[in-house]
Write a structure and sequence with these properties.
3-stranded antiparallel beta sheet; globular; binds zinc ion; mainly alpha; two-stranded antiparallel sheet; single chain
Length: 263
């Protein structure tokens, strides 16, 4: 019997149907490009088939809320490529698979922490951009920075991120316990919020920043307006994907640490 009380073959067929529907929808709505699609298919399949329905529902919640907020609040945000998908989803896919194979609760908590750090980060970005206001560098709050650039934070963005982390923590705690486990909720919420702060901190410090020689703007890519941009600060080989990759790992690890040692 599966989590849904179905016999194994019906459960597999239902999972295949769900994967197919989500795939078609995400391609139709143009959230991801082809290689991004292949990467998310691999992540979705491992989370659903190894991790199970509950873990998949939370992944779907993160993807749906993130994509909808980007489209509805801020009118687009570009199509995700495979680097974006892997940076956001690889730790989640690995921990979900580990949890599915071993049933280890730490792997489950790691998954929830990693996903919550990405969820909190997405909410900060989208709410912050929507409400507006001049972002300030998280490492030097007295310095204003450009909109949409990594490492910049606004009060509304921070509040949005905290709210998102709390909602995700309550939902996932409820989903796995059937009641609210305050120790689990606090660990997942704390990990999401702290990893989100770390993400901005890394974005402001080690992430590479460039100045475009054509339009003069400070940008995150070494190429802009078809020209090679001048290196300004940070490390050249650390881009936004790598910062997300590090933050989601730390989010997972922090959730386990908070759960086992602090709360
Ligand atoms: Zn430019």
């Amino acid at each position: 019997m599966s989590e849904l009380g179905l016999d194994p073959s019906t459960d597999i067929i239902l999972k295949l149907v769900v994967i197919l529907i989500v795939s078609i929808l995400s391609l139709r709505m143009r959230f991801i490009d082809f290689y991004g699609f292949i990467a998310s298919l691999a992540i979705g399949v491992s989370v659903l088939f190894l991790g199970g329905w509950k873990l998949f529902i939370l992944l779907l919640l993160f993807l749906t809320v993130g994509s909808l907020l980007t489209k509805v609040l801020n009118g687009g945000g570009g199509i995700r490529g495979w680097k974006n998908v892997v940076a956001n989803g690889l730790w989640a896919a690995l921990s979900a698979s580990l949890y599915g194979v071993t049933g280890d609760k730490s792997a489950l908590i790691f998954y929830l922490g990693a996903l919550n750090s990405m969820f909190s980060d997405t909410l900060s970005t989208e709410v912050g951009m929507y409400i507006g206001g001049r972002p300030r560098l998280i490492v030097k709050p007295w310095v204003e920075t450009s909109k949409g650039l990594s490492g910049g934070v606004t009060v509304h963005g921070i509040l949005g991120g905290i709210t998102g982390a709390l909602i995700f923590a309550y939902l996932s705690s409820y989903l796995f316990n059937g009641s609210l486990d305050s120790r689990l909720t606090a660990s997942i919420a704390g990990a999401g919020i702290l990893a989100n702060v770390l993400d901005s901190f890394l974005g402001a410090s080690i992430q590479g920043k460039y100045e475009c020689s054509v339009c003069g703007r400070v940008v995150e890519d070494s190429l802009h307006c078809g020209e090679v941009a001048r290196h300004l600060s940070g490390l050249k080989y650390i881009d936004n994907h790598k910062v997300n990759f590090i933050s989601s790992f730390v989010g997972g690890g922090l959730a386990v640490l908070l759960y086992t040692h602090i709360f």
